[in-house]
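Homework help board

Subject: predicted structure for assignment chain

Our instructor gave us this sequence and asked us to write out the predicted structure in token form, then describe one feature. I got the tokens but I'm not sure how to describe them. Can anyone check?
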Amino acid sequence: MQKKMNELTIQAPIQSGFGPRTTALEALGGEDLSGKVAIVTGGYSGLGLETVRVLAEAGATVIVPARTPEKAKDAVAYIPGVELESLDLLDPASIDAFANRFLATNRPLHILIDSAGIMASPLARDARGYEAQFATNHLGHFQLAARLWPALIKDEGARVVSVSSRGHAISGIDFNDPLFETRDYEKWTAYGQSKTANALFAVELDKRGKSYGVRAFSVHPGSIVTDLSRNLSDDEMRAMGALDEQGQRVFSEYNDELKNISEGAATIVWCAVNKQLEGKGGVYCENVDIAQAVPADNPRGPGVKPWATNPEFAEQLWHLSEKLTGIKFPV
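My token output:
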């Protein structure tokens, strides 16, 4: 087992037999999750909500943290086995308080899914002065995983899934100015940087965690119309083919990239529980398979760019994240 845990997972498809039309339920692979505990950030809407539904209906206890749990209550009311909690990823004290409450239950944590995020938002900063997309999408989840580490290592076999995006192709990490303190802010560059951070976090967490039985993955779920697009104008949505003649934000057709919510959640669920990934980790996945590594100058499309899987960048981001959060990961 130890040898299998320490093997490097190649960033290349394993021919899973699944694909872009696979649903989250199909990607589950028939797993019985009775007795398993999962935390899904952003689990009260969109892809997160579908992920929660599938995991809970397979028997898992799923904790759904939200900034305002009262607002999330109706969304998850019909799903058995869901616990609502309070968490604000932009507030370090809130993250610590949530983690401490969970640790106090003495439960193991088998699945941590970092699904919450913001996209292409106007420039905003948290109380520390950190740019909001980087702080929400990456730093908040980095701190959350660090604080929950004692629960993740309780039972060998935990998985951490970071929801990245094909948007990682827009930008790598600007290690000289990750928080846009001196360079001009551009919303898509900031988003791309945060999604690259999600992928690199999985690379380094997997490297450090696999000897404890903790494996990490990053996921591009596809392009799905959800509340994540709330900061985009109708013109931007129209340019993406996601605005119909009635002004509704929907796709008129689906393909390998454009998906419905159940298809979009499929790769998340696959990475979280499917036995096909036992002994594997540290890779970026899409269309319910490990994605193909592609060159930096490859036209934007399927595959993962080298800056999102580079182990040196992953380690550099890890140290930067520890510095910015003031938290040393206990691994």
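Reply (TA_rk): Your tokens look well-formed. For the description, you could write something like this. Residues 5 and 279 are 5 Å apart (CA to CA). That's the kind of observation they're looking for.
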